[in-house]
Write a structure and sequence with these properties.
Blueprint: H1 2-19, H2 68-71, H3 86-89, H4 116-121, H5 136-139, H6 155-165, H7 228-238, H8 244-247, H9 271-275, H10 313-319, H11 330-336, H12 364-367, H13 379-389, H14 395-398, H15 431-434, H16 439-443, H17 454-457, H18 459-464, H19 470-473, H20 495-498, H21 537-543, H22 554-560
């Protein structure tokens, strides 16, 4: 009898439900018994068969414990379907300063953001170096109000006070660029020299200095020569053991020294080739220190033969009996034995004009046509015609100095030659400074009409660049707009941070060429979203039905999806 009563009650409920209009609206297709029992209409989660996961909105995190009425204000549950976005139910505490997509930072579990640094790395300003340890409020001054207004991504936007306050060197007085990354690394932890990019002239070993003004005495932006003597002339002048100045040593420090501190160890490898063979010939291994022959360290032009050899004047006088011009002194020894062997010859070095390079093969009359007395030792007194006739480059037209020794040595053919005043014509900075010894690389043998713009020299690099294709995209031919003289990379054209993520996010690997999005190769500010994605206007109109401000064009796609996500 009890069972029959239950059956009749169920039939009554079913009949009543079908006879009356459902308070939940027409869209609800669940059976009443999934949520209700015969004991009453009150919903009980513990006995109901209904699971919210069967709907379009699965209950995760805090949503699982929320009261149904918090979202469903009426019994027509479908009315809550339109509120699928977080900000449909939750007030934007950030006042629209970080965009409408709460899920970028928050999860249904909690409003607390535990990976803010990781999230920031995906923004247009990844946190590198000291930025990674900085307090958020140091940059986002309105963070205490939960507002994160967009900030500039240029260094000077935040560090103008540092720029203004810096005195060593004084950035304002010396006119240092406000583009901080020209000198400082964005991934460094300090402003000091350890963070400065000085790769064009490595600051290592003896050059490891902290004070820029130690070398840049006329201002940090003033170019200075990379020649050793331009900074170390005083060291050269004050050297006593040996005395470089009195001995007429070369001012090219690198011939003997490295950049090790204190100038040691040093080698004088050109002793044999320019002066006297001590590393070869009969004197090889016959000495221990320079002082064995150069008995006066303050003047290495002076040397002794007679103090070293195991013989005396009487023996030498006897051995050289009958030799014209013989005299028992070191200069005479060297005059007849310039190589230290018994085969002697006149040594021009004793005249004060050492015969080196092309002068060795020159006949006496080439220089001494008017006699041997009063012959000039100045280069241009003998080589004026060579100067006037030089056409590559044309010395006269270019106004090159008549001091031949400024650029040339005595090597035959005037080569190799240096051009220490190159910066007066075209400054060699950064990567150009590193190739300053390879003249042919830029001049290709023609020193009169050399190309002097970036594009003229780097046309091949411009045409060959594929990522992005500069030629196809008709990028500007002013290379300096994106690149520096130090290196092609890093460049200032950061597509992901400055514009739209194509090397990260959902568009990574989804394109092959710039032209897929930039359909107008002459204008990269024009882009297309609608040409690429596999959908049409009809589908998109339907999908965005009810979206305020929706228009089917690329500009509006980008306005709502600035990072290419949904």
């Amino acid at each position: 009898m009890r069972k029959l009563s239950l059956i009749l009650s169920m039939i009554f409920l079913i009949g009543l439900a079908s006879a009356q209009e459902s308070p939940h609206g027409e869209k609800l297709t669940f059976n009443c018994t999934d949520c209700h029992t015969t004991e009453g209409w009150k919903f009980s989660a513990s006995t109901a068969k209904f699971s919210h996961d069967l709907t379009k909105f699965k209950l995760k995190g805090q949503h699982f414990y929320s009261d149904c009425k918090a979202c469903h204000k009426t019994l027509v549950f479908s009315e809550a379907e339109a509120k699928a976005n977080c900000n449909d139910c939750h007030t934007d505490m950030h006042n629209n300063t970080v965009g409408p997509n709460c899920a970028e930072c928050h999860t249904p579990k909690s409003w607390i953001v535990e990976n803010i640094t990781e999230i920031h790395q995906r923004s247009r300003f990844p946190l590198l170096g000291a930025h990674n340890t900085a307090d958020c409020a140091a940059c986002h001054t309105s963070a205490s109000n939960l507002e994160f207004q967009p900030l500039g991504v240029e260094c000077i936007d935040c560090h103008n006070d540092d720029y203004q306050a810096t005195t060593k060197p004084n950035h304002i007085q010396t006119g240092i660029s406000t583009d901080c990354i020209e000198c400082h690394r964005i991934d460094a932890f300090e402003w000091s020299a350890s963070g400065i990019n000085h790769d064009f002239f490595p600051l290592t070993r003896g050059h490891k200095v902290e004070d820029c003004a130690a070398c840049h005495k006329s201002g940090i932006t003033e170019p200075i020569s990379a020649d050793c003597s331009s900074c170390h002339q005083n060291d050269y002048n004050n050297a006593k053991n040996p005395s470089h100045q009195n001995s007429g040593f070369s001012t090219d420090c690198a011939e003997c020294h490295t950049t090790e501190p204190d100038w040691k160890p040093a080698e004088f490898k050109t002793h044999d080739g320019l002066y006297f063979p001590i590393y070869s010939g009969s004197h090889k291994g016959e000495w221990n220190s320079c002082a064995d022959c150069h008995t006066q360290p303050e003047n290495y032009n002076l040397f002794s033969c007679t103090d070293c050899h195991e013989h005396n004047k009487s023996d030498m006088d006897k051995e050289h009996k009958g030799e014209n011009g013989y005299s028992y002194n070191s200069n005479a020894c060297f005059a007849c034995h310039p190589n230290g062997s018994e085969d002697g010859a006149f040594n021009h070095d004793v005249t004060g004009f050492q015969l080196k390079g092309a002068h060795i093969q020159t006949t006496c009359l080439d220089c001494h046509s008017a006699g041997y007395g009063g012959t000039s030792s100045t280069c241009n007194n003998c080589h004026t015609n060579n100067y006037n006739e030089a056409i590559n480059p044309n010395h006269k037209d270019a106004g090159i100095s008549t001091e031949c020794e400024d650029c040339h040595t005595t090597n035959p053919g005037w080569e190799p030659a240096s051009f220490p005043t190159h910066n007066d014509y075209y400054a060699l900075n950064g990567a150009h400074a590193k190739i300053s010894n390879d003249c042919f690389l830029c001049h290709e043998g023609n020193y009169n009409s050399t190309k002097n713009t970036c594009y003229e020299c780097h046309t091949a690099a411009y045409n060959a660049t594929k990522d992005p294709a500069h030629l196809t995209a008709q990028f500007p031919k002013e290379c300096a707009e994106c690149h520096t003289e130090t290196a092609w990379e890093p460049s200032t054209f950061n597509h992901d941070s400055q514009y739209f993520p194509i090397y990260s996010g959902k568009h990574k690997g989804e394109w092959n060429s710039c032209a897929e999005c930039h359909t107008v190769p002459t204008n990269y500010s024009v882009f297309s979203c609608t040409d690429c994605h596999e959908h049409n206007k009809t589908d998109m109109d339907k999908e965005h039905e009810g979206e305020n401000g929706y228009v089917y064009n690329s500009i509006n796609c980008y306005a709502c999806h600035p990072k290419g996500d949904s």
